[in-house]
Amino acid sequence: MALPRQLTFVDAAGIVAVLDRTSPGHQVVAGVWRLELEAGSVLVSTDYTIVQAALLLQERHGLAGVEHLFREVVPALRVERCTQADVDVAVAALLSSADAGRDLVHHVEQRVRQRLRVLASLLDG
After folding, report:
1. Burial grade of 106 (CB within 10 A; 0-12, 13-18, 19 or more)
2. For the segment 60-105, what is each residue's pLDDT rounded down to a tens digit?
């Protein structure tokens, strides 16, 4: 019986760090990305995360940043759709949170990670 493949979550900061050579930590994060892929890990993200990363990359690099995202990174990801239940839980968490530094996408990502039981994150490495 084959061992289950590790699920590793990739948030927008991780995606941007993989693609943006001017991003702090690019070399390290890009190296971890390659190691995760070589190890057969399943790199998981959300549709909300992809949109957030696209906005950041377009702001920094124009449409070329968006093109690189969809040509180089998205094909390597398992992109999970956020459900209405995910959004409802995330909105409640955001509104009850004393942490004003976290946005709705962060809370949605946390909810999806819980739902999928994803324990590792690309930026943990």
Report:
1. buried
2. 999 999 999 999 999 999 999 999 999 999 999 899 877 667 889 9
User: Which of these, 71, 69, 77, lies nearest to 46 by C-alpha position?
Assistant: 77
Distances in whole angstroms, Cα of residue 70 to Cα of each of 12, 79, 103: 13, 12, 24
Tell me the whole-structure pTM to 2 decimals: 0.88
3-state secondary structure 70-84: HHHHHHHEEEECCCH
Structurally, at CATH architecture level, domain 7-123 sits in 3-Layer(aba) Sandwich (3.40)
Place of tokens 């906005």: 55
Which residues share a beta bridge with 77? 43
